[in-house]
């Protein structure tokens, strides 16, 4: 075992709980900044806005789960008004990323689904990044993984509480 991990451990454990908390929050801030930059690069490489990419990922996940998705479902997921979703759908359809198809159960309803081209483009763009993120979890044992998940759930609850107050 090298001296570096021992130094890192000593540095970490000499801190007060407050100092550790500040260091953790700073690490999270830096991660969020890096993730935001990655999302901007991804959006730029695909010539899409954030909602466009979120919409495609939602549609692709829906197809993987065998779920039929309506424009209203997508509007609810994105948190936008159904009247605003039309422009987004028009843009994605014009770019060859989605299709509007009639519902097999109700002719009055329109379903939306990603094209195979969109699925391949999103996978090509995001699969390498996802693989690198999974690799970053390598070496975390079950207890460490549980601690991280529980911490992130507490952080999510903490930031969600801001909207409720």
UniProtKB/TrEMBL annotation:
GO MF annotation, one: DNA-binding transcription factor activity
One of the Pfam families matching this protein, by short name: MarR_2
Name of the protein: MarR family transcriptional regulator
Give the source lineage, highest ranks first: Bacteria, Bacillati, Actinomycetota, Actinomycetes, Micrococcales
Which InterPro entries does this chain map to? HTH_MarR-typ (IPR000835), MarR/SlyA-like (IPR039422), WH-like_DNA-bd_sf (IPR036388), WH_DNA-bd_sf (IPR036390)
Q: Which SUPFAM superfamilies match?
A: Winged helix' DNA-binding domain
Domain (HTH marR-type): give its ranges: 23-157
Entry's Gene Ontology BP terms: response to stress
């Amino acid at each position: 075992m090298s001296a570096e991990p021992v130094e890192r451990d000593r540095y970490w454990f000499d801190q007060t709980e407050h100092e550790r908390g500040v260091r953790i929050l700073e690490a999270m801030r830096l991660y969020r900044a890096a993730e935001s930059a990655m999302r901007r690069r991804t959006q730029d490489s695909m010539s899409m806005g954030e909602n466009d990419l979120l919409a495609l990922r939602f549609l692709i996940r829906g197809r993987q789960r065998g779920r039929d998705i309506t424009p209203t479902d997508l509007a609810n997921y994105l948190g936008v008004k159904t009247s605003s979703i039309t422009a987004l759908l028009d843009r994605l359809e014009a770019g060859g990323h989605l299709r509007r198809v009639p519902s097999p159960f109700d002719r009055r309803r329109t379903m939306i689904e990603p094209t195979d081209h969109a699925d391949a483009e999103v996978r090509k763009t995001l699969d390498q990044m996802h693989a690198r993120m999974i690799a970053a979890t390598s070496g975390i044992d079950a207890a460490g993984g549980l601690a991280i998940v529980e911490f992130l759930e507490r952080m999510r609850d903490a930031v969600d509480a801001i909207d409720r107050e």
